[in-house]
């Protein structure tokens, strides 16, 4: 299988310095809205990269649940592999690969565990079967067969058939507080537009420095 000839031109749009707001969150919000309007499948899907004790990187896709000037929020099992990595090294990387509209956003930052109040508020907003699924999956652990997972789901569904599903102690979330956010826009002839927002402290005030990067 020869993959070397697979290529295409990026011609949808450009990104210029004059188009950049002072805050990367303003640009991210605009891009997220445009991504949703373009009806991409899973527009909130993002790759979360963590590193284990040996320095081995791991990546997986999770869903962004909210964002604001403080950071980017996702939820997960606190006993999962990613959570174990974050406990030992809170530095993570997020990537939004919006290929069909020729854009990417890459975020470097530190993950901070959310309060139980914030977690409970989101947990109660989930569909009941999703709440039950949180109880069923011992995330990242080895399974003998899928059937074992399905049997456990049925058991928990029967257990919580009446009344609310309680929040598992091992289920929570993180906010990733960014130190840098890079916006990538595909360009013709591989002359892509890349802008890096980096957080800096100037006279006790935090500001975002903007640099254009070579493609």
Automatic annotation (TrEMBL):
The UniProt GO MF terms for this protein read: FMN binding; pyridoxamine phosphate oxidase activity
The residues that the entry says bind FMN are 60-65, 75-76, 81-82, 104, 139-140, 184, 194
Task: Identify the residues that bind substrate.
Answer: 7-10, 65, 122, 126, 130, 190-192
Q: Which Pfam families match?
A: PNP_phzG_C (PF10590), PNPOx_N (PF01243)
The answer, when asked if Electron transport is one of the entry's keywords, is no
- List keywords of the entry alphabetically: Flavoprotein, FMN, Oxidoreductase, Pyridoxine biosynthesis
Instruction: Tell me its EC number(s), please.
Output: 1.4.3.5
Q: How is the cofactor bound?
A: Binds 1 FMN per subunit.
From the UniProt record, list the reaction(s) this protein catalyses.
pyridoxine 5'-phosphate + O2 = pyridoxal 5'-phosphate + H2O2; pyridoxamine 5'-phosphate + O2 + H2O = pyridoxal 5'-phosphate + H2O2 + NH4(+)
Tell me where in this chain the Pyridoxamine 5'-phosphate oxidase N-terminal domain is found: 37-158
GO biological process terms on file: pyridoxine biosynthetic process
Q: Which cofactor does it need?
A: FMN
The pathway where this protein functions is:
Cofactor metabolism; pyridoxal 5'-phosphate salvage; pyridoxal 5'-phosphate from pyridoxamine 5'-phosphate: step 1/1; Cofactor metabolism; pyridoxal 5'-phosphate salvage; pyridoxal 5'-phosphate from pyridoxine 5'-phosphate: step 1/1
Record InterPro entries: Pyridox_Oxase, Pyridox_Oxase_CS, Pyridox_Oxase_N, Pyridoxamine_oxidase_dimer_C, Split_barrel_FMN-bd
Q: Which residues form the Pyridoxine 5'-phosphate oxidase dimerisation C-terminal domain?
A: 171-215
Keyword Acyltransferase found: no
| General function of this protein | Catalyzes the oxidation of either pyridoxine 5'-phosphate (PNP) or pyridoxamine 5'-phosphate (PMP) into pyridoxal 5'-phosphate (PLP).
Q: What family is it from?
A: Belongs to the pyridoxamine 5'-phosphate oxidase family.
HAMAP family according to UniProt: PdxH
List the PANTHER family hit by this protein, alphabetically. PYRIDOXINE-5'-PHOSPHATE OXIDASE, PYRIDOXINE-5-PHOSPHATE OXIDASE
Q: Whom does it interact with, and what assembly results?
A: Homodimer.
Give the protein's recorded name. Pyridoxine/pyridoxamine 5'-phosphate oxidase
Q: Source taxonomy lineage?
A: Bacteria, Pseudomonadati, Pseudomonadota, Gammaproteobacteria, Alteromonadales
């Amino acid at each position: 299988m020869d993959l070397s000839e697979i290529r295409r031109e990026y011609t949808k749009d450009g990104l210029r310095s004059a188009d950049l707001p002072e805050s990367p969150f303003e640009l991210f919000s605009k891009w997220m809205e445009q991504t949703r309007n373009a009806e991409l499948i899973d527009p909130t899907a993002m790759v979360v990269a963590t590193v284990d004790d040996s320095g081995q990187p791991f990546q997986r896709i999770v869903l962004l649940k909210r964002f604001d000037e403080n950071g980017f929020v996702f939820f997960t099992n606190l006993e999962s592999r990613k959570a174990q990595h974050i406990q030992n090294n809170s530095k993570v990387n997020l990537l939004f690969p919006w290929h069909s509209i020729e854009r990417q956003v890459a975020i470097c930052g530190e993950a901070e565990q959310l309060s139980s109040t914030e977690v409970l508020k989101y947990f109660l907003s989930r569909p009941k079967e999703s709440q039950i699924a949180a109880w069923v999956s011992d995330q990242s652990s080895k399974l003998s067969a899928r059937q074992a997972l399905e049997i456990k789901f049925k058991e928990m569904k029967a257990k919580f058939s009446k009344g609310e599903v309680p929040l598992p102690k091992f289920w929570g979330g993180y906010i990733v507080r960014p130190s840098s956010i890079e916006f990538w826009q595909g360009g013709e002839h591989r002359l892509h537009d890349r802008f890096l927002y980096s957080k800096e402290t100037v006279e006790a005030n935090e500001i975002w420095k903007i640099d254009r990067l070579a493609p």
